Amino acid sequence: MIITKRFLNLLNIEIDELNSWLGLIRCMSYNMDLLSKKPTRQHEEVLIETGLFFKQLQNDLFDIRHILGDNIKDKQITEKRLKFLTEKINKYRKIVDDSIGDLSITYPIIPGTGMLNSYINIAKSISERLKIRMTEIKKDSRNKNVFKYINLLCEYLFIYSRWVTVKLEEKEFLWE
After folding, report:
1. How far, CA to CA in Å, does 153 sit from each of 32, 41, 57, 59?
2. How confident is the model at residue 74 (pLDDT cuts 50, 70, 90)?
3. What distance in Å separates the CA atoms of residue 28 and residue 22, rounded to the nearest whole number?
4. Which residue has the higher pLDDT, 102 or 93?
C-alpha cells in the first residue's frame, strides 16, 4: 500500500482521539470525588501516578504524530526517534510482563468496574482501532517501531485498567 497524506491524516485523527481520552483520564485522576469509597493514601498515590503517567503517554502520542508526519516529507525516521521508541517499547514491555503474573485472568473482564477503569477501557478500545489501521504501515520498515509502540500501548492500557481496579479496591465483573 502506498501511504498517502490522506491516510496519515486519518491516523492522526485516531491519535488525536486517543490523546483526548488520555487527557480526560489524566484530568479525572486528580478528582478524588470520583472514587466510590473514601480515598485512602494508596488511592491518592494511584490517582496521582495515573495523572503523571498519562501525561507522558500524551507526549509519546505527539511524538508519534511527528514521526508519521516526517515520513510524508523525507521518508525516514531518525536514529534518535528510533531510540526513543525502542526505550518506550522496552519500558512498556517490562510493565506488562511484570503485571501479567499478578493480574492473570481465566475469563474476559467486563469493563466498568469504576469510573477510571471505564475511561481507560475506552482509551484501550481506541488504541486497538488505531492499531488495526496502522497494520497498513507496519509493513514499512520505518514504521515498525511505531506499530510496536501502539500494540504495546493497547496491552498496557488493558493491564493498567486492571491494576487500577485492584489498587482502588473495586470489584471486577467477569463474563458469565
Report:
1. 25, 27, 9, 13
2. very low
3. 10
4. 93
Let me know: does 165 contact 146? Beta carbons within 8 Å. Answer: no
pLDDT for 116: 87
Domains of the chain: 5-174 (1.20.1200.10)
Q: Cβ contacts of residue 106 below 8 Å, gap of 6+?
A: none
Residue 85 burial (C-beta neighbours within 10 Å; 0-12, 13-18, 19+): buried
Long-range contacts of 64-67, Cβ-Cβ distance < 8 Å, separation of 24 or more: 64/15, 64/146, 64/149, 64/150, 65/12, 65/15, 67/143, 67/146
CA distance 55 to 49: 10
Judge contact between 47 and 114, C-beta under 8 A.
Answer: no
Give the three cell numbers for residue 125: 478500545
pLDDT of residue 1: 60
Residue pair 18/61 in contact (Cβ under 8 Å)? The answer is: yes
